[in-house]
Automatic annotation (TrEMBL):
A Pfam family: Ricin_B_lectin
The protein's name in its UniProt record: Ricin B lectin domain-containing protein
Signal sequence coordinates: 1-29
Organismal lineage: Bacteria, Bacillati, Actinomycetota, Actinomycetes, Kitasatosporales
Matching Gene3D superfamilies: 2.80.10.50
Coiled coil location: none
UniProt keyword list: Signal
Entry superkingdom: Bacteria
Ricin B lectin domain segment(s): 44-191
Amino acid sequence: MFTSRTRTAVITGTLTLTAALLGAAPAGATPTAAQDPVAAQAVPTVGVSVVNTYNNRCLTAMGTFSGASAQLWDCTGEARQKWTVNWVYTPLGGYYELRNSASGLCLDADDNTIGSNGTRAQVWECLGTGQKNQHWRFEPATNQADVYRLRSRYNGRCLDGEYQQLGGNGGRVQLWDCYGDGQVNQLWKVA
């Protein structure tokens, strides 16, 4: 025989378990540390620069139209080098979109070349939670504060400054197999 207190505990436990299994999150929710370990690290979110640690150049949108390339340029503080980092709800948790301040477009892995190393990074219309090639996981680098690898949800590859073009402005940004903290062209400071 169930008492009122027992029924309440069973219902509450069932609802909690159901929400956990379904990964339910109310609209406008922000991630918790359990959903997203990176959220606990306080990644800056509005008007940030994403700076390649190899050459200290900023991730820059080269236009305000879908398909404009992302490149590395000297950091000048202009809007095309500023990004808003928005948490994206996914069943796996821990993913973000990067929305460019000048255009409102999202950092995007070109789906025409996404199957291999060298996938072109560009900006594109933000298409929401179903657009895996616009979702990025911020993976903290070991022993380096505020430094991350940005891993694509679509193919697991990392945002990468093309090594042969890192010497000057206009360096290509692409996706490449992730190689860890020693591969500094895949490490990004967010500030």
